[in-house]
């Protein structure tokens, strides 16, 4: 820590903080955190994208704030302090969505509020921000938010494509005339259990391609 | 992490709670006018869509002023009540009052084809939360010219289908009255009789929402029964 002033903003270590959560340290597929919202908001791509952005903002900022005041937070009430920071940020995000993106906030309904209970946030604060400087913590938050968002967008892409035949609300299957030849949307993709199965398939693909993640017998 | 004294912990929590409270109230206060505007515009869009006028967030206000001619509040006897703003009447609050004291809003509108339509707001319960909607009736006070429904949090793909065009368009040209008696609209499970003028298909997998919607249409409109009979042309 004594050479921290000399460390460049985007040192190899910091880049790793940003990149690892996207792949081998992904919050959803590897740490299996935040599954609940991944099931709930991935029916369509647009709410999933807004959810991803909201979570990224909240996790990055709460990491930054907690890391900045970590030396002053009494250990005995640290969980409460973390929750207050997260809850305040989530309410602010929610208020902004209601004012500037009303349609989306209606679709997300309670799930914005439920960001507070997203395990990724508490997990990152406890595991990283409480022990690291603000800047690396901020990057760690961005990385984890992006890793979470990436899975959300992938899951919602397949669910929207197969369940509603559209991409980002654009009726793709209708435009290419798939319905005329007898194709029908799979209503099952819309219900939450299929999100779980989609996440499961992503985890399977991810593990089969990454030797580090496979348990050795 | 070093150990802090109890005094420090108390002061820390107090400062934290007060600053967060100030921050949150400021945000809420500053954004409140914008949020209220969004809710109002959405309500106007819903009302417009019940007379089959499609509007966007941008032109909703303008179209609303163009199409909506008059709005007033009546009681269950069909008499006008003065001094109540129909637009801000909360049906949920009204439903808790005794029937005779309830204020029932009516909107008089002119459709794109020049017909004068009357719009009646509805509010009821779905499976997970409130559902609401607007029904517009033609001159005969029985034939439905258009409906729009919405919900707070019905199951996507199932109950949530009530706010989609395929479901709503079923209500077009259905009749609330048969030979002068109020029959409302039945939401039928397993397929409505195509020839019937007061049956629509329920949503498969959305039974409770469908039932809630049927009850909402019936209970909401029966309060207007006298008004509808008196103003029939």
Please provide a brief summary of the model.
By secondary structure, chain A is mainly alpha-helical.
Report on this structure.
The complex is a heterodimer of chains A (217) and B (233). Chain A has 217 residues and is an all-alpha fold. Chain A has one domain (12-205). Chain A has helices at 12-19, 35-40, 45-68, 78-100, 102-108, 110-113, 119-127, 134-164, 172-175, 192-208. Chain A starts with 11 loop residues before the first helix and ends in a 9-residue tail after the last helix. The relative contact order of chain A is 0.18. The mean pLDDT of chain A is 84. By secondary structure, chain B is an alpha+beta fold. Chain B has one domain (46-230). In chain B, the strands form three sheets. A six-stranded antiparallel beta sheet of chain B has the order 2-1-3-4-5-6. In chain B, helix 1 crosses helix 2. The longest helix of chain B has 45 residues, at 6-50. Chains A and B meet through helix 4 of A and helix 1 of B.
Features:
heterodimer; A: about 220 residues; mainly alpha; 10 helices; globular; B: about 230 residues; alpha+beta
How many domains of chain B, as an integer? 1
Roughly what fraction of the amino acids of chain A lie in strands? under 5%
Distance between the termini of chain B: 80 Å
State which percent range the strand residues of chain B make up: 15-25%
Largest interface: A-B, 27 and 25 residues
Q: Which structural class do the helices and strands of chain A define?
A: mainly alpha
